[in-house]
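testing teh design pipeline on a random one, pls ignore if ur not involved
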């Protein structure tokens, strides 16, 4: 399944939030626009994620669409147990969630709904704010590697 579905090219995002102990985040490829009315996006964190429960509890979080030169950022946020924000520049969104420097786009969200999805959780999130940098290109993931 992974080999065949790996032929679908995806962007790479980092979901960020502020928890009781500071900023948290995780890399997530399963991001998509879901609805225009109301404005919703979706993503699917792994059930094993230790960062998603913190972001869920915060209720507001940010989806950061990574730029083509941010492989290192993607890899840093894919690690477990490390200080993922070490050396990462960010600013708070209007509601405080980290917006990563250099991202192609960012979407500030509030949890709308969650659904069981096997070894993942399917999250629907209400869009509260968003922005983009039209001068940057996105980081792509295809057939198990960055780029095409």
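output:
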């Amino acid at each position: 399944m992974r080999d065949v579905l790996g032929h679908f090219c995806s962007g790479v995002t980092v979901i960020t939030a502020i928890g009781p102990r500071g900023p948290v985040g995780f890399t997530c490829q399963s991001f998509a626009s879901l609805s225009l009315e109301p404005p919703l996006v979706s993503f699917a964190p792994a059930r094993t994620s230790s960062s998603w429960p913190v972001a869920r509890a915060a209720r507001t979080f940010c989806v950061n669409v990574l730029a083509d030169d941010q492989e290192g950022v993607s890899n840093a946020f894919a690690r477990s147990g490390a200080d993922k924000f070490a050396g990462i520049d960010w600013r708070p969104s209007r509601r405080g969630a980290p917006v990563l420097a250099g991202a192609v786009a960012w979407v500030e969200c509030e949890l709308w709904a969650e659904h069981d999805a096997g070894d993942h959780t399917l999250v629907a999130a209400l869009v509260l704010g968003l922005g983009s940098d039209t001068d940057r290109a996105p980081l792509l993931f295809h057939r198990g590697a960055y780029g095409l």
